[in-house]
Design goal:
The chain is mostly helical. The protein contains 6 helices and no strands. Helix 1 crosses helix 5, helix 2 crosses helix 3 and helix 5 crosses helix 6. The two termini are about 40 Å apart.
Length: about 160
Amino acid sequence: MTIARAPGSIEQALDKIAGEQLLGGWAGMAGVVDRAENTVRNWANPNTPESIPLDLALKLDLAWQMAGLIGAPIRDAYNALADQLREAEFGCQFELLRGAAAFAKENGEAEEALMLLALPGADEAAIAKAEREVSQVVALADNLRGMIRRLRRSPNRSPP
């Protein structure tokens, strides 16, 4: 019976390891962690309450790498899940950080355009560029102002 596993889940990572014949499937995994094959299968089954202990997850990832395979499936799944939780918890702050970086970049470009515009001999192209760059900065500033308001209303403002 095929069991549906959430993409990027620890269960899917375990299923990926089991599918790698270099490691010997479920039986090989059971040997690596010194547990019954049924126990290892249950760790990969989202319909059972069992989950893999951290020290055994590390052993399976190490076995994966010792077999010459790239990555660490359980670690990679854990990192992706942790990133999702951080984004959900601190999403406004990450959005603000990305917005601030875009603002800094565009502001620098606007400053450069304004300085070039101030030089003798600036032409219509220099005027148009300065106007365009400043307009982009103003739009980003307005967007940042909205983010700041949302952050003020956010219950969790701990640093990410």
